[in-house]
Amino acid sequence: MEKGTTILLGLRGVAVERVERVTGADGGPARLVHLRTAVSSAAGCPCCGVISTSVKQYRTTRPRDLPYGEEPLAVRWHKRQYRCREESCPRKAFTESIAEIPPRARLTGRLCRKAAAEVASGRSVSAVAAEYQVSWPVIHRHYAAHADQLLTEPEPPAVLGIDETRRGAPKWMHDDEAGRWVRTERFETNFTDLSGQGRLLGQVAGRTGKTVTGWLDDRGHAWKHQVQFVAMDPCAVYRSAVQRALPHAVIVVDHFHLVRLANQAVTRVRQRVTRQVLGRRGTTREPAWANRRRLLRAGERLSSEQFHRMWEEILTQEATGELLAAWIAKEELRFLLSLARQHAPQSEISNRLFAFYDWCARADVPEVTRLARTIEAWWPQILAFINTGITNARTEATNRMIKDAARIPYGFRNLENQRRRVRLHCKRTIISQPIRE
Length: 437
Ligand SMILES: [Zn+2]
What we know:
By secondary structure, this protein is an alpha/beta fold. The chain folds into four domains: 1-84, no CATH class; 104-150; 159-254 and 392-428, 2-Layer Sandwich (Nucleotidyltransferase, domain 5); 255-388. Helices cover 45% and strands 19% of the residues. The protein contains 16 helices and ten strands. Strands 1, 2, 3, 4 and 5 form a five-stranded mixed beta sheet that branches. A five-stranded mixed beta sheet has the order 8-7-6-9-10, sandwiched between helices. β6 and β7 form a beta hairpin. The longest helix has 24 residues, at 255-278. The protein is elongated. Bound molecules: zinc ion. Residues 45, 47-48, 50, 84, 86, 89, 91 line the site of zinc ion. Zinc ion binds at residues 45, 47-48, 50, 84, 86, 89, 91.
């Protein structure tokens, strides 16, 4: 009959012989559990499988197990070493082993599983290693095996999101050849499933065209063919890479980044005009500076009173009207982009696009002209956005999670470890955020 202590310990394949009180490593009370093997299969030769009855000697190992109770609990497993009597077997001797404690294992299976699950749930490897008093590499190895099992090859998404995140802080490196210091930033390209739950599919170091085509080509032809849409920032390198690797896919650039470009144009005009008029930077005394945030707000979110007061003030000081021209260009662009998901007829889209270009041409402000050129260069992808409404707002949500995951262990030195960690973290955290308008 099974003893109560054996049931209490609950480690399959071994029985508790006795438990004794000892003094722990810290001088405090501790418990020592003596185990013996309780399954007959442990006497089977790992080479030929024949059960042996010839005991060669006894050996004691100290496998580490999960803590139980407050006082430290140490384990001694008294196991037999057998001779293999099978004549054709090359193995002369073997020691008992059970599934929970395989040969040469120093940790029980349940300790490894618990540690791996805790790291996977978001704790740092070093915190878990400290709690179980196991070294960092051992905990990490078990976690990595656990994660690799969960992180199988991603299913091809109908809508793929591609974007970049910066890895770590920028660094200043000395370029010996050029004889000067250069600022270097490390980037990663992220691939996200925008048709599902916004899950991170993969991460590659760098942000070149090769980074993108390489990852996509590795997925294989059938996988690539399933991708119908690709959402990205207006980044020419990414676009040409996707055009090469996924020639059939429709590229979509979302409005969020386009509005940001328009806002940048407004800010640049404000700064330039202020310098030209005043010969210095703006201060709180200047209405353009005082309204700098209001200028970037959506036009319809300004009350009529706010709108009139703001422009009256600005135009008294900045009589050229260039800032107003840039602001109107931004609003024309927003008006055009607001057609997304409206099933607008092509004629309406053409009218609003013409109104935007026409305004930019008449304004003849360098920053506005540059904005119009960018819109022109990206028009097919912008039109695809208006027609599909696909946005990579979910990619942005994933990027936040990437940063969260990287924050737990205070940065990663090993890129492979980081990618595994980030992908598992994103897989676990289901994005419930609605698509941003
Ligand atoms: Zn054998």
